[in-house]
Design a protein that fits this description.
about 230 residues; mainly alpha; Four Helix Bundle (Hemerythrin (Met), subunit A); two-stranded antiparallel sheet; 10 helices; about 75% helix; about 0% strand; elongated
């Protein structure tokens, strides 16, 4: 329920109440909030305060503001974390190593869930993508983007929406991390090892062999860690 605002931190109060309003009324993606005029009257606050509170929610990726129309609820996605993780890798010297530790934990769980829940078609589709990666081993940019798609496909095979949103939020940072790693793999032989790790991972997943899949993933990340330390 929306109520009149107190005298302090009006923008924060309005933002919090609007968030509670969205949750209490179970508003879904595309649903509209009350107009600025309606909110101003209900809260007993100026339209400037309402506009700032809406901007705050937009910055959090919760709503979308359209000029001349009511603000609408946005679909849930990993967008709010996307820029944070990408910037984190660029400004923090220890970020690459810490980020790899996070990826290891997440992707191990992704693989286990995908093997347990993914359909045969979903797991076989990984083979198509990894074959495309082989064709692009000489293109740093294309290989990195295909590698990110590969890991996102595994996330979708988990049938866990939270996992998908989380991996989506990491996709920019993952792509940057992969590209930086590829710059250190100067020989075709090194790239071949990376590609074989992916192919072994897919083969184990199609066979629904979690131990074999974990072994392939661990080998891949061990190599990535060694490169980041040099």
């Amino acid at each position: 329920m929306l109520t009149r605002l107190k005298s302090l931190t009006l923008v924060d109060q309005a933002s919090n109440q609007l968030l509670s309003y969205i949750e209490a009324n179970d508003l879904q993606a595309g649903d509209s909030l009350p107009s600025i005029a309606q909110l101003s009257e209900t809260f007993g606050a100026s339209r400037a305060v309402i506009r700032e509170s809406l901007k705050s929610l937009e910055a959090q990726g919760i709503i979308e503001i359209c000029n001349g129309r009511k603000a609408k609820v946005k679909p849930i996605s990993g967008e709010p974390l996307f820029n944070y993780f990408r910037r984190f890798l660029k400004v923090d010297g220890n970020a690459a190593w810490e980020f790899t530790e996070i990826r290891v934990a997440l992707e191990q769980q992704c693989i286990n869930l995908a093997i347990a829940r993914g359909s045969d078609a979903e797991l076989r589709s990984l083979n198509t993508l990894v074959n495309e990666m082989r064709k692009n081993m000489d293109s740093e940019q294309d290989f990195a983007e295909l590698d990110v798609q590969f890991h996102l496909m595994i996330a979708h095979a988990t049938h866990n929406r939270t996992m998908v949103h989380l991996l989506e939020s990491l996709r920019g940072a993952i792509c940057d991390s992969i590209r930086e790693g590829l710059k250190k793999r100067l020989t075709h032989e090194q790239m071949e090892k990376v590609q074989l790790d992916h192919e072994k991972l897919v083969a184990a997943m199609i066979q629904r062999d979690p131990l074999g899949a974990q072994e392939a993933l661990s080998k891949h990340f061990d190599e990535l860690t060694d490169l980041q330390r040099h």
